[in-house]
Design a protein that fits this description.
seven-stranded mixed β-sheet; globular
Amino acid sequence: QVQLVESGGGLVQAGGSLKLSCAASRRTFSNYAMGWFRQAPGKEREFVSGISWSGGSTYYTDSVKGRFTISRDNAKNTVYLQMNSLKPEDTAVYYCAADGIFRRVIVTATTDFGYWGQGTQVTVSS
């Protein structure tokens, strides 16, 4: 099966930084958009950031804009999420996902992504 594996989560103080990585195996996602989502306890999984198949377009939910940066390295089949100025409300399990449709630019709905990682916990203390 296709696998997406997140890493880089952990416990940080408010104002700190983390860089999440998502590595794909068994296939390349160089022609597919990818995204990051997060889910806090008792809440719906929400879109955080997305990047087009080429890396030329990025998109962020308003609450993280200016603090988070998404990027991808297609040669390594990996997508990253640099998170700066973290806040306690950023605490959640973070998931990476890959689109299942060829060369879409930006995708934000959870139902549009065909492949998901198992998640990595990010906890921000106040």
